[in-house]
Design a protein that fits this description.
7-stranded mixed β-sheet; alpha/beta; single chain; disordered C terminus; 297 residues
């Protein structure tokens, strides 16, 4: 562990709710609902996040929404280099005062969605570890997973329902789960009660771990765009049988859809939420030529 006083053992423990309220008041800060500012006060949840991140000295970590730096200190103490991205100027000021002198810490005062992943640790592998602002969960996942340099590992504290949707097995799949699982395996590591935050959010949360696939099921490029169009079309008719839904949503004949389904071993009466990522990939391969044709959505 670093000998820096900012990372001393007593500084790594999260504040109690009462201590946090006093700290916020002393700094002239108030949690902003518009920025999903719910500060984690549960040491067990912090331990679980750091353990799930499988950190080793020298790892490069992007942390979105570091807030008061409670998780940031843990990441630095584990030997990681941390690029913290904070939108709130008052919190950014606090973080600079507290951690700017700590080796391996860098702060970017910006909207994380305005950063391009190629600008983050250029040419280097990195991990994404964060108690992310819940209102940007979906766009943040698209920003970090869609490009050519997704993180090796992402450990994110997100709403429990969203974590379940992302890690869902066939039978409970959605467009979001297919999108994420095309790039990474997904696992819900632990549930985190709403009372673990100050102020407490309206719902429980979960620690979600995404481990990047060595090779995406559908790689970056025009083919991936067609793949997403296919999956989106299927889930627009999630209550319908997959054959009828795809025929209704896409410029494909019933015969073309039937042949693709048969070739992939998918019966036409299946619902879209029952298809696995591999089955969607198979359908994309079978229909790719038609999906890329003029007039395709």
């Amino acid at each position: 562990m670093s000998g820096d006083p900012a990372l001393a053992a007593e500084r790594l423990a999260p504040p109690t709710p009462g201590q946090l309220r006093r700290l916020l008041a002393a700094e002239g800060l108030r949690p902003k609902r518009s920025l999903s500012q719910n500060f984690l006060t549960d040491a067990g949840a912090l331990d679980a996040i750091v353990e799930a991140a499988e950190l080793a000295p020298g790892d490069r970590v992007v942390e979105v929404g570091p807030g008061l730096g409670v998780l940031t200190r843990r990441l630095l103490a584990a030997g990681a280099s941390v690029l913290a991205v904070e939108l709130d100027p008052k919190l950014a000021h606090y973080l600079r005062r507290e951690l700017a002198h700590v080796a391996g810490f860098e702060l970017v005062e910006a909207d994380a969605l305005s950063l391009h992943p190629r600008e983050i640790f250029p040419g280097k592998r990195f991990k994404l570890v964060a108690n992310i602002p819940y209102h940007i969960t979906s766009p943040l996942l698209h920003a970090f997973l869609e490009g050519e340099r997704p993180p090796d590992l992402a450990v994110l504290l997100v709403q429990l329902e969203v974590a379940g949707r992302i890690a869902a097995p066939p039978g409970q799949m959605s467009y979001l789960s297919v999108f994420v699982q095309n790039v990474a395996s997904a696992q819900v590591v632990a549930r985190v009660a709403a009372a673990s935050f100050e102020p407490a959010p309206d719902v429980d949360s979960a620690i979600l771990r995404l481990r990047r696939r060595d090779t995406p099921a559908v790689p970056v490029g025009d083919g991936r765009d067609a793949f997403y169009r296919l999956v989106q079309a299927g889930f627009r008719q999630r209550r319908k049988q997959i054959h009828n839904g795809l025929t209704r949503e896409l410029p494909l004949s019933a015969a073309e859809v039937s042949a693709a389904l048969e070739g992939c071993g998918v019966t036409p009466d299946r619902r879209p939420q029952t298809l696995s990522v591999d089955e969607w990939v198979c359908l994309h391969a079978a229909l790719a030529g038609r999906l890329a044709a003029p007039g395709a959505p």
